[in-house]
Specification:
alpha/beta, Cytochrome Bc1 Complex, Chain D, domain 2, two-stranded antiparallel sheet, 9 strands
Length: about 400
Amino acid sequence: MKKLLILFAFGAFGLNLTGCLEETVTVDSPEVDGFSNSFSLQFNDSEFEALSQSLEIDQAITMNSVEVPLHIGRSSGLSTVDQTSSDARKALLGRVLFHDTRLSATGETSCESCHKQAAAFSDDVAFSNGINGAVTKRNSIALGSVPTFSPVISGYGSSGDEQTARIEGDVKFFWDERANTIKEQSEATIQDELEMGKDLHELSRELKEQEMYKILSMKAFGTTDLTPDRITLALEKFTSSIVSMNTRFDQLRDQQVLGVSSPGSFTEAELLGSELFRNSCSSCHGDEMGKPRVNIASNGLDEVYTDKGVGELSGNSWQNGIFKVPFLRNVALTGPYMHDGRFNTLREVVDHYSEGIQDHINLHPNLKGNNSQPRRMNFTENEKQALIEFLNMTTDHTMLVDARFSNPFRQ
């Protein structure tokens, strides 16, 4: 089986030391890039002593491969997801940035404030707290289900006996998909006046003076010049490293791929929920809980939308009430649901699709019946509970406690 190497084309960075470090700290330049089943980042003694003033991290950090479930690997020929050592070092810097409240103008919020690891990197309120008492305009989309696999992968090319792939730009970000990349999303969020309100150039100037960031930047980019572009690229590498594929759903799908007629370890309700999801939900969300088949859609929450979604951004009336179709991995942890957090529970979500879809003018065709009216799936009570139990199977419990994603700051 081949391996997946995730690449982002943002140009090459030089390896010259451009900043001046404290004389007491000796910083080693990063090793030559490469990728394998595992990679270890080693800090020298002076680096580690300086970092330990603020961070609780190991002196040697090992990055291991993530196994790809069979049902995903069968179509892509992939067995593992691996990072280059360069991307792994940038992801470590991104992890520290992600949890640092200095990224906000008032020191109140970090990226983690709205994207909590225990909630699959979503928030547990309808609208997240920003700075100066402000709240966000929309619900925080979960990051813990951002996939690095599925049909979005294309353009394979050989490098020795390894395979490389590039993530194409057809997965966009925010509810109105106004960002083409995670990097663009980070730029907008940090500078948003409600959320973090921090000018990226000012942030760059401040962080470059911090000994901790000089060390981490040198490891990541071969320079202590932590520019705005490098800040957001590191955040992208960290977010892209959040891979969620160790779920009971994946175990079930693998058994189905292997042709196991009566999969063990699964209840009748879970198996019924799997069938209902495939027949009623997968036309938009996909079978594999990876990239949705439909990127954006109106799902009939209202006949008239206060928030026009994509239409508010584009000015096109035919896009009013249209929003991003989210990934559903870890969905049981990511409530409240929808762009405005109107549904607190999965039961409310299932009720909506069962009998609550509204006749909005831009309602997606998949949610219309033969008479062009909103579909009424009319699930029974047993079917509704089966769908909920099935959706609970998409939870990746290992990701929720993985130290690679946790807050590294000393409390």
